[in-house]
Amino acid sequence: MASFNYALRDTFRLIFRHWGLSILTLVTAVSLFFLLGSSALFSLNVKNIVADVENDLVITVFMRAGEDVAPLLSTLEDAEFIDDIKAISPEEGLSILKSKLGDQAKAVSLLGENPLPWSVQIMVKRADYATPLVRDLMSFPSVEEVVYAGQLAEKLSRASYIMNRVSLAVLALAIIITALVLYNTVKIAIYSKRREISVMLLVGATKSFIAFPFVLQGMFLSTIGAVLSVALLAIAYPVIGNMIHNTLMFINVLDDRDLLFRLYLILVGTGMTLGWLCSWFAVHCYIVSAGSPD
After folding, report:
1. 26 and 97, same domain (yes or no)
2. Where are the alpha helices (DSSP H) in the chain?
3. pLDDT digit string, tens, across residues 139-150
4. Strand-pair partners of 147
5. Is there a single domain that holds both residue 65 and residue 46?
6. Are residues 94 and 170 in the same domain?
7. Interacting residues of 32 by C-beta distance below 8 A, sequence separation 6+
8. Do 190 and 219 belong together in one domain?
9. Helix, strand or coil for residue 256?
10. Do 62 and 42 reside in the same domain of the chain?
11. How far is Cα 223 from Cα 149, in angstroms, rounded to an integer?
């Protein structure tokens, strides 16, 4: 117990002795883990949106201006792979659009006359039926455009893939920078106590006893940085989520508290592990070189 109290007291002495470098390390750690958490939340939300879009098996067909919807309905009504089909008049389509826009529906009234054509909503029984059906619908001369959620899902998946790769590259660079800052922080602390460490080695102090305060220093700074970044994320994420939902009401922002809590725990655990690894490596390298004969 006395050894632990000594190590803990010495740890805080090391932190406050080099307070400028400690603050730099802390700010770097906060920036790193905030970036890591933000990237993870972005990826989780994109996957959630893609899953919602892929589960929406409705294909919307917009007819050309002045074209009759009856021939298309008669062609599709006997298809076995269609679960439901519904024709929507321009008036009904405008009413649906206004209900989705909510408070922003006044902007539609500024257009004057109704710009929407006849449309047909088709619900297929399975997702793999959608792509061939869309291809066939595009060949109809009376069809102006076909909108299928799968197209959006594919675009979102590609965007998510690119963003994930960019985020991984940025995170790898940020982790390396933070690791170097932690390593140098502990190394400077070791250098300032090099004479004391040499004496302790001569009188028979164990390597673990010598290393413990320095390892605690690195773990403390890195863990506190991770905790602060988690606090910032916990405050900022709901605010940004509400802003996105109020602006784009059709986007469901991820709100799984258990998942978010696990993510925050992972961030804190990563901070603790990174601090321990960098500090241990710095102390180990110094003690091995100090203990080896010249």
Report:
1. no
2. 2-17, 19-55, 70-76, 90-101, 106-109, 130-138, 149-192, 194-202, 207-247, 257-291
3. 888 888 887 766
4. 60
5. no
6. no
7. 171, 174, 175, 177, 178, 225, 229
8. yes
9. coil
10. no
11. 43
Split into its structural domains, the chain has a count of 2
Q: Domain check: are 64 and 81 in the same one? A: yes
Q: Check if the beta carbon of residue 282 is closer than 8 Å to that of residue 186.
A: yes
- Which residue segment(s) compose the domain that 93 sits in? 58-125
CB-hemisphere CA count at 13 Å for 282? 27
99 shares its domain with 243: no
Mean pLDDT of the chain: 75
What's the one-letter identity of residue 252? Answer: N
Residues in the chain: 294
Give the global pTM.
Answer: 0.62
What are the DSSP calls for 108-139, one per residue?
HHTT-S-----EEEEEESSGGGHHHHHHHHHT
- Same domain for 116 and 258, yes or no, is no
Report the pLDDT value the prediction gives residue 36, as an integer from 0 to 100. Answer: 79
Which residues lie across from 143 on neighbouring strands? Answer: 63
Using DSSP's 3-state secondary structure scheme, residue 37 falls into helix
